[in-house]
Design brief:
With about 240 residues, the chain is α/β, with parallel strands linked by helices. It has a single domain, classed as Flavodoxin domain (Rossmann fold, 3-Layer(aba) Sandwich), CATH 3.40.50.360. Helix content is about 35%, strand content about 15%. It has 7 helices and 6 strands, in the order βαβαααβαβαββα. Strands 1, 2, 3, 4, 5 and 6 form a 6-stranded parallel β-sheet that branches. It is globular. The model has no long low-confidence stretch (mean pLDDT about 95).
Length: about 240
């Protein structure tokens, strides 16, 4: 496989960065090709704006998604967006590696998603979920979080981790058609020993060695809905 790792941590010596480094090493050892977009190191611009477009379908009023479509067709997307889009379209698997910030991803990674997952290519019209523009690709989150496992379950103080991650797992990855692999989670990272950190890295190595056998997370299929996107079981004849 060709694997793209999108990395978002502002400290190159962090445990999160160590996870990224281990992934590169392990995946190359498995015979995969690997590309890394280290967003902080790149100085990635997370702000979606009119500056992203070299031409305009409507110069008077910015509808960002429509301008994405127009500029893609005209080959006039900003160079940094085009470079990342090329990486994305080349990848068989995309690993998003980041620390949890405020129940979500860092803003710099959200900005990568806003600017790179362009309308007309990754989604648009009824091109979503299993009919999304990125169908055939896989995606996975590799995250670090300060909380402990018992805090991130149904009756835990923060609720279930997958509920926290739903806007990413379903609203971004699955929405664009990617098959979502189980998330790797490194819990309580700022507060654990070096030995515990080493154990977590070994767990991540084993997770990466299981990529071919991991069961994807189930989301909806458009086949379950009619032309107006009502559930088929709810339609009347």
């Amino acid at each position: 496989m060709h694997i793209l790792i999108v990395q978002a941590h502002n400290e190159s010596q962090s445990f999160n960065a160590a996870m990224k480094n281990l992934a590169v090493q392990e995946l190359l050892a498995q015979g995969h090709s690997v590309e890394v977009s280290d967003l902080y190191a790149m100085g990635w611009n997370p702000i979606a704006s009119a500056a992203d477009f070299g031409s305009r379908a409507n110069p008077e009023y910015l509808i960002y998604a429509l301008e994405q479509r127009h500029n893609h067709s005209q080959n006039t997307l900003a160079p940094d967006i085009q470079d990342e889009l090329d990486k994305l379209l080349k990848a068989d698997l995309v690993i998003f590696n980041f620390p949890i910030y405020w129940f979500s991803m860092p803003a710099i990674m959200k900005g990568w998603i806003d600017r790179v997952l362009i309308s007309g290519v990754c989604y648009g019209g009824k091109r979503f979920y299993d009919q999304g523009g990125l169908a055939g690709k896989k995606a996975m989150l590799a995250i670090t979080i300060g909380g402990q496992p018992h805090m991130l379950v149904k009756d835990g103080v923060h609720g279930e981790l997958n509920d926290m991650l739903k806007p990413i797992l379903r609203g971004t990855l699955a929405y664009t058609g990617m098959a979502v692999l189980p998330t790797f989670v490194a819990y309580h990272v700022p507060y654990i020993s070096l030995e515990a950190r080493a154990n977590l890295l070994e767990q991540y190595r084993q997770h990466l060695r299981s990529l071919d056998t991991l069961q994807t997370v189930t989301f909806v299929s458009l086949n379950e809905f009619d032309e107006k996107l009502h559930p088929v079981s709810a339609t009347t004849i």
